[in-house]
Protein backbone atom coordinates (compact mmCIF):
# COMPACT_ATOMS: atom_id res chain seq x y z
CA UNK A 1 0.00 0.00 0.00
CA UNK A 2 1.18 3.49 -0.81
CA UNK A 3 2.12 5.84 1.99
CA UNK A 4 1.09 9.42 2.64
CA UNK A 5 4.14 11.59 3.28
CA UNK A 6 3.68 15.08 4.71
CA UNK A 7 6.54 17.14 3.24
CA UNK A 8 6.73 20.64 4.66
CA UNK A 9 9.00 23.42 5.83
CA UNK A 10 8.78 25.20 9.14
CA UNK A 11 10.51 27.82 11.22
CA UNK A 12 12.43 27.00 14.41
CA UNK A 13 9.31 27.96 16.37
CA UNK A 14 7.08 25.61 14.36
CA UNK A 15 5.27 27.76 11.79
CA UNK A 16 4.82 26.63 8.18
CA UNK A 17 3.93 30.15 7.00
CA UNK A 18 3.42 33.62 8.36
CA UNK A 19 -0.01 34.86 9.45
CA UNK A 20 -0.78 35.98 5.88
CA UNK A 21 0.67 32.79 4.33
CA UNK A 22 4.15 34.30 3.83
CA UNK A 23 6.93 31.79 3.10
CA UNK A 24 9.52 33.93 1.36
CA UNK A 25 11.36 34.58 4.64
CA UNK A 26 12.64 30.97 4.82
CA UNK A 27 16.37 30.92 4.03
CA UNK A 28 17.79 28.03 2.02
CA UNK A 29 21.52 27.46 1.85
CA UNK A 30 23.23 26.34 -1.34
CA UNK A 31 23.95 22.87 0.07
CA UNK A 32 20.34 22.48 1.25
CA UNK A 33 18.91 23.58 -2.11
CA UNK A 34 21.20 21.12 -3.94
CA UNK A 35 19.89 18.32 -1.68
CA UNK A 36 16.29 19.32 -2.37
CA UNK A 37 16.85 19.41 -6.15
CA UNK A 38 18.54 16.01 -6.01
CA UNK A 39 16.65 13.98 -3.41
CA UNK A 40 13.21 15.65 -3.53
CA UNK A 41 13.14 16.85 -7.13
CA UNK A 42 9.51 15.69 -7.44
CA UNK A 43 8.56 18.59 -5.19
CA UNK A 44 9.98 21.30 -7.44
CA UNK A 45 7.06 22.98 -9.25
CA UNK A 46 6.90 22.16 -12.95
CA UNK A 47 7.44 25.75 -14.15
CA UNK A 48 10.70 25.97 -12.12
CA UNK A 49 12.14 22.60 -13.14
CA UNK A 50 13.85 23.76 -16.37
CA UNK A 51 15.70 26.59 -14.57
CA UNK A 52 17.27 24.15 -12.08
CA UNK A 53 18.14 21.40 -14.56
CA UNK A 54 15.17 19.12 -13.82
CA UNK A 55 13.26 19.31 -17.09
CA UNK A 56 12.36 15.77 -18.14
CA UNK A 57 13.75 14.21 -14.94
CA UNK A 58 11.47 11.30 -14.00
CA UNK A 59 9.74 11.17 -10.64
CA UNK A 60 11.65 9.38 -7.87
CA UNK A 61 9.32 9.30 -4.88
CA UNK A 62 5.83 10.58 -5.66
CA UNK A 63 3.26 10.47 -8.43
CA UNK A 64 0.51 12.30 -6.54
CA UNK A 65 0.39 15.56 -4.60
CA UNK A 66 -2.30 16.82 -2.22
CA UNK A 67 -2.73 20.50 -1.42
CA UNK A 68 -5.09 22.63 0.56
CA UNK A 69 -6.51 25.86 -0.86
CA UNK A 70 -3.90 28.06 0.84
CA UNK A 71 -1.07 26.00 -0.64
CA UNK A 72 -2.59 26.04 -4.12
CA UNK A 73 -3.65 29.69 -4.39
CA UNK A 74 -0.17 31.31 -4.56
CA UNK A 75 0.50 29.39 -7.78
CA UNK A 76 -2.80 30.61 -9.19
CA UNK A 77 -1.82 34.21 -8.43
CA UNK A 78 1.52 33.64 -10.19
CA UNK A 79 -0.17 32.21 -13.29
CA UNK A 80 0.53 28.53 -12.54
CA UNK A 81 -2.89 26.82 -12.28
CA UNK A 82 -1.22 23.40 -12.65
CA UNK A 83 1.88 23.84 -10.45
CA UNK A 84 2.90 20.17 -10.37
CA UNK A 85 1.99 18.98 -13.86
CA UNK A 86 4.46 16.08 -13.48
CA UNK A 87 2.26 14.70 -10.65
CA UNK A 88 -1.45 13.92 -10.21
CA UNK A 89 -2.73 16.98 -8.38
CA UNK A 90 -5.58 17.15 -5.88
CA UNK A 91 -6.69 20.36 -4.17
CA UNK A 92 -8.98 20.06 -1.17
CA UNK A 93 -11.33 23.03 -0.99
CA UNK A 94 -15.00 23.69 -0.47
CA UNK A 95 -14.80 27.14 -2.05
CA UNK A 96 -12.51 26.99 -5.12
CA UNK A 97 -13.96 26.20 -8.52
CA UNK A 98 -12.12 24.02 -11.06
CA UNK A 99 -9.07 25.98 -12.25
CA UNK A 100 -7.28 23.59 -14.61
CA UNK A 101 -8.22 20.23 -16.18
CA UNK A 102 -5.10 18.57 -14.69
CA UNK A 103 -5.94 19.60 -11.12
CA UNK A 104 -8.79 17.74 -9.43
CA UNK A 105 -10.72 19.83 -6.94
CA UNK A 106 -11.97 17.72 -4.00
CA UNK A 107 -14.79 19.03 -1.83
CA UNK A 108 -15.62 15.71 -0.16
CA UNK A 109 -14.10 13.94 2.86
CA UNK A 110 -10.27 14.20 2.62
CA UNK A 111 -9.74 11.03 4.69
CA UNK A 112 -11.91 8.94 2.35
CA UNK A 113 -10.08 10.35 -0.69
CA UNK A 114 -6.66 9.58 0.80
CA UNK A 115 -7.71 6.03 1.65
CA UNK A 116 -8.84 5.60 -1.95
CA UNK A 117 -5.54 7.00 -3.29
CA UNK A 118 -3.51 4.74 -1.02
CA UNK A 119 -5.17 1.69 -2.57
CA UNK A 120 -4.14 2.68 -6.12
CA UNK A 121 -1.60 0.42 -7.78
CA UNK A 122 1.59 2.48 -7.93
CA UNK A 123 5.25 2.18 -7.01
CA UNK A 124 5.17 5.82 -5.83
CA UNK A 125 3.92 7.40 -2.63
CA UNK A 126 1.54 10.33 -2.13
CA UNK A 127 2.86 13.71 -1.02
CA UNK A 128 0.88 16.03 1.21
CA UNK A 129 2.39 19.43 0.51
CA UNK A 130 0.11 21.44 2.75
CA UNK A 131 -1.41 23.11 4.38
CA UNK A 132 -1.70 22.80 8.07
CA UNK A 133 -5.48 22.59 8.35
CA UNK A 134 -5.56 19.78 5.78
CA UNK A 135 -2.69 17.99 7.57
CA UNK A 136 -4.65 18.18 10.81
CA UNK A 137 -7.66 16.55 9.15
CA UNK A 138 -5.43 13.87 7.57
CA UNK A 139 -3.20 13.20 10.59
CA UNK A 140 -4.62 9.70 11.08
CA UNK A 141 -3.57 8.84 7.50
CA UNK A 142 -0.06 10.35 7.51
CA UNK A 143 2.57 7.59 7.45
CA UNK A 144 5.75 9.66 7.33
CA UNK A 145 6.89 13.24 7.91
CA UNK A 146 9.68 15.07 6.10
CA UNK A 147 10.17 18.30 8.03
CA UNK A 148 12.46 20.90 6.52
CA UNK A 149 13.44 23.16 9.41
CA UNK A 150 14.65 26.61 8.47
CA UNK A 151 17.00 28.60 10.71
CA UNK A 152 14.56 31.43 11.39
CA UNK A 153 12.03 32.30 14.07
CA UNK A 154 8.70 33.48 12.64
CA UNK A 155 7.06 34.59 15.88
CA UNK A 156 3.55 33.72 14.73
CA UNK A 157 1.82 32.20 11.75
CA UNK A 158 0.23 29.04 10.40
CA UNK A 159 0.81 25.81 12.28
CA UNK A 160 1.78 22.50 10.67
CA UNK A 161 -1.33 20.63 11.81
CA UNK A 162 -4.02 23.23 12.30
CA UNK A 163 -5.59 23.66 15.69
CA UNK A 164 -6.96 20.22 16.58
CA UNK A 165 -5.51 18.53 19.67
CA UNK A 166 -4.65 14.97 18.61
CA UNK A 167 -1.40 13.60 20.10
CA UNK A 168 0.11 11.23 17.55
CA UNK A 169 3.51 9.60 18.00
CA UNK A 170 6.15 9.29 15.30
CA UNK A 171 9.67 7.83 15.45
CA UNK A 172 12.60 9.98 14.34
CA UNK A 173 14.41 7.90 11.70
CA UNK A 174 16.98 10.34 10.29
CA UNK A 175 18.28 13.89 10.60
CA UNK A 176 20.18 15.69 7.84
CA UNK A 177 21.99 18.92 8.57
CA UNK A 178 23.52 21.38 6.18
CA UNK A 179 26.56 23.17 7.56
CA UNK A 180 26.53 26.10 5.19
CA UNK A 181 23.40 27.81 6.49
CA UNK A 182 21.73 26.04 9.38
CA UNK A 183 19.00 24.17 7.52
CA UNK A 184 18.01 20.73 8.84
CA UNK A 185 15.66 18.01 7.63
CA UNK A 186 14.04 15.55 10.02
CA UNK A 187 12.45 12.31 8.88
CA UNK A 188 9.77 10.59 10.98
CA UNK A 189 7.72 7.41 10.57
CA UNK A 190 4.44 6.68 12.29
CA UNK A 191 5.02 4.75 15.50
Topology:
Elements: E1 4-10, E2 15-17, H1 30-39, E3 62-68, H2 69-77, E4 88-92, E5 103-106, H3 110-119, E6 125-130, H4 132-138, E7 144-149, E8 158-159, E9 170-177, E10 184-190
Parallel strand pairs: 1-6, 1-7, 3-4, 3-6, 4-5
Antiparallel strand pairs: 2-8, 7-10, 9-10
Describe the structure.
- This is Dihydrofolate reductase.
- InterPro entries: DHFR-like_dom_sf, RibDG_C, Riboflavin_Biosynth_HTPR.
- It comes from Stackebrandtia endophytica.
- With 191 residues, the protein is α/β, with parallel strands linked by helices.
- The chain has a single domain, classed as Dihydrofolate Reductase, subunit A (3-Layer(aba) Sandwich), CATH 3.40.430.10.
- The protein is built from four helices and ten strands.
- The protein has an eight-stranded mixed beta sheet with strand order 5-4-3-6-1-7-10-9. It has a two-stranded antiparallel sheet with strand order 2-8.
- The chain starts with a strand and ends with a strand.
- The relative contact order is 0.26.
In short:
By secondary structure, this protein is α/β, with parallel strands linked by helices. The protein has 4 helices and 10 strands; from the N terminus they run ββαβαββαβαββββ.
Which overall shape is indicated by the principal axes computed on the Cα atoms?
globular
- Unreliable segments (pLDDT under 50, ≥5 consecutive)? none
CATH architecture: 3-Layer(aba) Sandwich
Q: Strand order within the widest sheet? A: 5-4-3-6-1-7-10-9
Number of distinct beta strands: 10
Q: Give the SSE order as H and E letters.
A: EEHEHEEHEHEEEE
CATH class: Alpha Beta
Helical content class: 10-25%
**Gyration radius, in Å:** 16 Å
Number of domains: 1
CATH H-tier superfamily: Dihydrofolate Reductase, subunit A
The mean pLDDT is: 95
- Roughly what fraction of the amino acids lie in strands? 25-35%
Domain Bacterial bifunctional deaminase-reductase C-terminal: 4-181
GO molecular function, one term: 5-amino-6-(5-phosphoribosylamino)uracil reductase activity
Protein name: Dihydrofolate reductase
InterPro entries: DHFR-like_dom_sf, RibDG_C, Riboflavin_Biosynth_HTPR
